[in-house]
Known about the structure:
Bound molecules: ligand 9MR
Shape: globular
Amino acid sequence: MSTQASTPSPSSHRRRRRVLRPLPLAAAGLLVATGVYALPQLTPGASAATTLRGYADARGVRIGTAVGDSALTSDSSYTAVLDREFNSVTAENAMKWDAVEPTRGGFDWAAADRLVAHAAAHKQGVRGHTLVWYSQLPSWLRNGDFSATQLNSILKSHIDTEVGRYKGRVYAWDVVNEAFNDDGSMRSSLWQTKLGTGYIANALKWAHAADPAARLYINDYNIEADNAKSDALYALAKQLLAQGVPLNGIGFQSHFVVGKLPSTMKANLKRFSDLGLEVSVTELDVRIPLPASAAELAQQSKDYKTASENCLGVPRCAGVTVWGITDKYSWVPSTFTGYGAALPFDERYTAKPAYTGLSKGLDPKA
Ligand code: 9MR
């Protein structure tokens, strides 16, 4: 994609000054013809229906975001947008193994508890993320050289404890995260190597026993398209369901590059939904080569709209979660050199065109 028609990024001085000028409330449809966009203003008497969560509530679905503990605890601009716009939260890191069980049997719930309490106070649901992953494992676990029997009981005890602690307060769990390679083979990991693929069914069964009401997911990236990886996951999901394993949903992470949404996304989600599974977009972001041009921001808006429609247009789509609110805090720039601007709000919490695209994708009347 071209970055030639490079215009100032949303955080530019020029755009900042223009956005700060108050807009008439009548123009509360966020994007005005000039291309200047502004936050939806919630003034007394104004309807919250024009927020992301207003649209999602009206539709009976979730609009979520990943939440980092430092933003939650130190940035009141962040929490203002979080609570106005989202009816669901996912712990970006606070519920992962290394955060929760830094020593064997020694649990640290501080950050996870903070998020769960915040969500309860603001009537938000919680997606739990994540119980079995190859990454972010504490060193005692990585380096422990445990036997299969020991590892099995370590995993069971971790799941029992974590899911049990939040029983009734987490509506869905990413039980297993990123279990496949892109070619459809099983990813080599501590779990896969020592326990074999059976760890997936066991983890789902243990999680179900610890909280029978929670919706249990397998979550992955690069499964949005119909491809070798999604085919392999589809085969596994079908097999697990046939065996009566408590699998309720598939999480499609949806980390996209601007203008490159897979054309088969909706049909692919539908085949999982046709198995009777819930489908959710769980980590949506759309990265742009920096500096982002006006054309790229406009394309990003379309991509947010299309991605959310691709899920919500399928039966049993439970909702869409974005992997962060603001370009101020995003995993993208440090992981993909030269890319950024991936989220619906800029660094100053100004709604980007992407916000409008996401709104349109969620709006039940659109
Ligand atoms: O956004 C998360 C980042 O803060 C962490 O450093 C990173 C560690 O691996 O994990 C990021 O979140 C990942 C998520 O847990 C699973 N899917 C990919 C996400 C982006 O890397």
